[in-house]
Amino acid sequence: MNAKIELFRQELNRVFDDNLRTKQWQNYVDYAIIGLIVISTLEVFLSTYDGIVERYGKWLTFVDYFTTIFFTIEVSLRIWCADLLDSKYKGFWGRIKYCFSFYGMIDILSTYPFYLHFFIKIPYAALKALRIARLLRIFRYMKAFSILSRAIKAKKQEMVVSLQFLAIVTLILSFILFFVEHEVQPDVYNNGWKSVVWAFAQYIGDPGGFAETPPISFIGRLIACAIGILGIAIFAVPAGLIGSAFNEVMAKDNHDVEVEENKKKLHLAFERKMCRFTRLQIMPLNLSIQEIIARMRMTENDIIEAVEHSQDFRIINIASTVPVDDKPMDKLAIEHFIVNRPYGCMIDRGSKVTIVSPSSLVDPVIGAYTYYFAKLGGFNYVSREIGELRPYKSFYTCSQDVVGLNEYLSDIEKLSSKEGSWVVTLLAASGANEPELPSQIHLTYGGKKGDESLEAPTVVIRDKETATAMFEDMENILESEYGIKADRQKYHDSAGPNLFMRKLSNAGSVNGLIIRIAWSCMYWDSRRIKIAQSMADIIKKHVEPKENNALDPELKIKGIAYEGHTIE
After folding, report:
1. Which of 291, 294, 431, 543 has most Cβ atoms within 10 angstroms of its Cβ?
2. 313 DSSP β-pair partners
């Protein structure tokens, strides 16, 4: 029941969203509210004509009561959902705070006082007049007013400082005026307050008639001229600041629209294409900036800004995947990925196998590669896609407190809760040193480098029989079909106590496998997706042989990257 109520409140929040840039509903509700505001105002206006009241009084009363009841319900619901509109309105006192906000005061004054005449003797006409305040609610739906209010907020500090300066200068001039004029008009300027009132009265049109006693001395008249100039500045300075801020806000809005359009273009650029080895529709692991410029007619600055304002794109340097002996030139590219968790991405497919990519944030292309590895096998997926690059703190080891690490470990524990679960970690191999090694795929499982056995106390594999059969199968198929050599813990160590696998609460019942893949297999080899498919099939064969082996339908459909698949 509570879940249904919360869902209802969230839907109301979408209806009442006043931010014209983030509004998620169509404008039908807004049109209805604006229409009733106009009708209500028209009813108040027509009720001032006796002849119209005599002929159509019943209809006017009906409109009066109907609109009042409608707005009472609407305002009450707004107060109820205020905490979803803004977190500062959470709780009882938060809602009280909302009631004293600009629109909250308008809502209450134009609605709730109607009911007072049932309990207190107050002229109904006076209460009815408050309903004219409903016209101010239309500002909610006017883009121009929204821009103006943002402009005022943007320059609020500058306006306050300028007005403070003008007020202080006016005070100084008014006291000088007193000392000068007191000598020649002692009866008129008999105290400092008179000169202060005279000076400030000039700024508001002299409503008290103080201009009838102007300064008569030469210096006094000079001061009066200076005050007159300041009077112009009092209005000119704020007007100039607001005008400047208005242009800035308009320019920012236009720029934001351009950025959003460029983000859409980036999404469109990542079009899935058929992999000739698998015959599946695969998204490119990355796109070079030059390719995007050519295909999407974007400038380099457009691309960089779109990436900066998006949480699912990043700029990578492909040259970091090439051995240092080759002296590669920098090759900048754009990578696209999914974000649905504080650390990056989590996809629950109900599998006993969870593919983990702890270094997608820093290793180019591994994020997209591991995503397809998991998709091809129908496996669960956890990938660290976001975080701080400097200083970089790895999710592969858990020796440090890192933002998002607890959620990351918790999600892996949740996904590997089935009996006989496997956590398979995919890593890029040792990069620059990789060509020196005779093997390209490195299988490690918790032991020390050189110890190929499954009997070491640090090993994180429980089902040793399945592991042995899987390893033999993988080694044979990789070498016979692709000419790729694999080894078991021959060149890499994973016995460290801070390995994330050892930090899982269910580590004692979960099988842990780490697969280090050379860049040549993960990126430069055109068969990379086919290689990933073969490895995924082997894991599937040994861990989940009886599970449904049907491929994800997305792999058969040409479309745009991850669009529509933010959460699977």
Report:
1. 543
2. 336
Task: Give exposure, 430-458, as e/b (b: 16+ Cβ within 10 Å).
Answer: beeebbebebbbbbbbbbeeebeebeeeb
Domain boundaries, given as residue ranges, for the chain: 2-141, 156-253, 340-556
For 163, the token pair is 């007005």
**Could you give the CA distance from residue 516 to residue 339 in angstroms, rounded to a whole number?**
24
In whole angstroms, what is the distance from residue 511 CA to residue 156 CA? 60
Kindly list the distances between the CA atom of residue 301 and the CA atoms of 226, 252, 268, 295, in Å, as whole numbers in the listed order. 50, 16, 18, 15
Give the model's pLDDT for residue 64. 83
Residue with tokens 């998620």: 24
Taking the C-alpha atoms of residue 266 and residue 307, their distance in angstroms, rounded to an integer, is: 9
Task: Note the pLDDT tens digit of each residue in 513-535.
Answer: 999 999 889 988 999 999 999 99
* Fold type of domain 156-253: Helix Hairpins (1.10.287)
Rg (CA), the chain: 36
- Taking a C-beta distance cutoff of 8 angstroms, is the pair 334, 300 a contact? no
CB within 8 A of 461, min separation 6: which ones? 445, 446, 454, 467, 511, 512, 513
The string of DSSP letters for 77-98 reads HHHHTHHHH-GGG-HHHHHHHH
Q: What is the CATH number of domain 340-556?
A: 3.40.630.40
Residue 34 pLDDT class (50, 70, 90 cuts): confident
Q: Quick one: CATH architecture of 2-141?
A: Up-down Bundle (1.20)
Q: Which two tokens stand for residue 106?
A: 């308008």
The string of DSSP codes covering 417-442 is -STT-EEEEEEE--GGGGGGSS-SEE
Other residues' Cβ atoms within 10 Å of the Cβ of residue 134: 22
For 251-295, the DSSP string reads HHHHHHHHHHHHHHHHHHHSB-EE-TTT--EE--S-EEHHHHHHH
d(CA 322, CA 319): 5
Query: Which among 348, 343, 355, 340 is positioned nearest to 405, based on CA atoms?
Result: 343
Q: Are 489 and 445 in contact (CB under 8 A)?
A: yes
Please report which helix (H) or strand (E) contains residue 245, including its range. Answer: helix 218-269
Residue 100 structure tokens: 């004293």
**Angle CA(57)–CA(58)–CA(64) in degrees, nearest 5?**
90
Between CA 122 and CA 299 the distance in angstroms is 66
Sole residue written with tokens 């400030």: 200
> pLDDT tens for residues 249-304?
788 888 888 998 999 899 889 989 999 999 999 999 999 999 999 989 899 999 99
Residues contacting residue 204 through CB under 8 Å, at least 6 positions apart: none
* Nearest partner of 461 among 415, 511, 505, 411, judged by Cα: 511
